[in-house]
Amino acid sequence: MSKPKIAIVVGSTRAARFADVPTQWIAKIAKAHADIDVEIVDLRDWPLPFFDEVASSAWAPSQNEVAQRWQKKVAEFDGFIFTAAEYNHAPTGVLKNAIDYAANEWNKKPAGFVGYGSVGGARAVEQLRLIAVELQMAPVKSAVHIAWGDFLAVRQGEKKLEDIEHLNQAAAALVNDVAWWAKVLKAARAADAIAGEAQAA
């Protein structure tokens, strides 16, 4: 079986976003992991409108062409790590909207989070965990929380994320968890597919 493919989803599209910094940092750590393949997925490349379909794609096919391509893209992956900026104690609207535009494509795949903001994006991450459960994902326990002091130090150029050891340790744990669950759940989905084909024969 091929290596699980993990998406690093950039959860902000603002021109002045900080997201590029943690994205490149966690992607470098993830790409060093021998058991997974990694791709950065930037929501700037997916100009989805605010959700405007007749229903979730779990119940009715999406009509929007970008949404259809987005769903196919999500389906390519075996697991996800999301960067999670916190706006008003919540994840960004653009990330929630992108999540809502897919449904079954998220199912039975792990989700991990790199949060940042005043409390390390913890409130945004907790909401995203609840959303992940509803989508039948497997949110992992390990997470990265870039707290306000570290965020400001990096933003102002005083430090780099790779200089902050407790964040490096958290990132390694996160990647290990996502890789483990991605491998296990990929095998389980493959077994389900084989069983389904046997029943249909």
From TrEMBL:
GO MF annotation terms: FMN binding; oxidoreductase activity
UniProt domain NADPH-dependent FMN reductase-like: residue ranges: 4-145
PANTHER family: CHROMATE REDUCTASE, NAD(P)H-DEPENDENT FMN REDUCTASE LOT6
Top-level taxon in the UniProt lineage: Bacteria
Name this polypeptide is given: NADPH-dependent FMN reductase
InterPro entries: Flavoprotein-like_sf (IPR029039), FMN_Rdtase-like_dom (IPR005025), NAD(P)H-dep_reductase (IPR050712)
Gene Ontology terms: cellular component: cytosol
